[in-house]
Amino acid sequence: xxxxxxxxxxxxxxxxxxxxxxxxxxxxxxxxxxxxxxxxxxxxxxxxxxxxxxxxxxxxxxxxxxxxxxxxxxxxxxxxxxxxxxxxxxxxxxxxxxxxxxxxxxxxxxxxxxxxxxxxxxxxxxxxxxxxxxxxxxxxxxxxxxxxxxxxxxxxxxxxxxxxxxxxxxxxxxxxxxxxxxxxxxxxxxxxxxxxxxxxxxxxxxxxxxxxxxxxxxxxxxxxxxxxxxxxxxxxxxxxxxxxxxxxxxxxxxxxxxxxxxxxxxxxxxxxxxxxxxxxxxxxxxxxxxxxxxxxxxxxxxxxxxxxxxxxxxxxxxxxxxxxxxxxxxxxxxxxxxxxxxxxxxxxxxxxxxxxxxxxxxxxxxxxxxxxxxxxxxxxxxxxxxxxxxxxxxxxxxxxxxxxxxxxxxxxxxxxxxxxxxxxxxxxxxxxxxxxxxxxxxxxxxxxxx
Length: 450
Fold this sequence. Notes:
It comes from Rhizoctonia solani. By secondary structure, this protein is mainly beta.
C-alpha cells in the first residue's frame, strides 16, 4: 500500500517552546538507563537486552506465547521499524490460539517524556501523549464463530501517521515530533513511539501482550533561495533586495564605564543581514553580512571592530518539567569571514548627504550536518531550536575587554533536515537523525498505562 506524500507543515519559531528561564539542577540519567514496563503484560517473549524478541528471518516480527506482530521485511538499516512523513504502518497480527480470549487490540502511541533528577534519581516527570490510535483486531462479541477455533489466524492492519500532534490546544497545529532524545545538565526528554498488541482473556487467565518501539524519522524541508551577492570589483553592482535578505539591528549593550581606548563608538550602528526566510536546510553554508555604519567609524577603530566580530549558530535543547525549564546550548558552527568592504553604498540604502562611513563584513555560516540537524518542539514539554548569535567586542585581539562597547543580537532560525528536492523524496525517512541508532529500548512511564 502506498501513499502520496504531501508537503510538510512549516516549522515556525512560534511553535517552539518559550525559552525564558532555566533552573540549575543535577544531571539526569541517560536514555539507556531507563527500562520498559507494561502494566498489562504478563507473557511476553523478550530478548536478553529486555526488548521484544526479533525473529532472525530478515523480517520485523515480534512474538509472545499467544501473539505475533509482523511488520513485514526489513527495508531500512536501523534495527527498529522506521517510518517517514505520512508513513503507513502496515502489518498483520497472528492470534495463535483463541482459547479464553475476549478481545485483541492494537495500539499506536507517541509520547514525549521529560524528567529531572535529584541525587541521581528521577524526581519530577511529565509526559505528553502526541499520538494515540487504537484498532480492534478481534472480538469474541463480533466474531463469535472464531472463539471455538483453537487454530491460529492472521489479521492485517494499517495505521497512517498524521502530520500533527493530536489534541493541540489554542488552535495551534504542532508538527508531530521525530523520535529524539535530548539531555541538558539537569534533565532529559525523549520522544518515542510504541506499537503494541494486547490480548485480553476471560476470567483469571493472564493477559498477553507484544510490543515494539518504532522510529518516526520525518524529513523536514525548506525551499532555500540563495540570495544575490555582488562580486568584488563589480562596476555596477545590483542593489540588494529586501526580498532576499532579512536585516535586523544589533543593539549595543552597555558595559561598565565608557570606551576609553576606542572613542566615537557611540555613533556606530550595527546590522545583521541573513537570507530572509530564516529557514535553512542542514548541511549548507548560509551567507551573512554585518554592516557597520555611522560617523563614529574611523581608520583607527575599524580594525578593532572587525577583529572583535563573532558569529555562531547555536543549538538550544530545552525541557519543561512541571513548570521548571532547563536548557542546554551547543555551538553548531562558527562563522567564517570571507571579505571586508568599505563604503559599499549598494548594500544598504543611505540618505542623501550622508557622509558617514560604512563597512560591510561578509562571510558564511555552516548549518550542521546534512540530514542530522533539525528544529522541532512540543510546546510546554521539550524542543530543539536554533539561533544565529552575533557579538561585536572591539579589541585588537578580538577578545572582549572591560569598558569596551559591546553589540549582541540573536536571530531565531529554523533548521530543516533537508532541502526540498521534490515530492517524491518527502516520504523517505531521515536516516541520519540520531534516533536511527536506537535499539530495543523502552521507557517507564508515570501513572501506569500509556
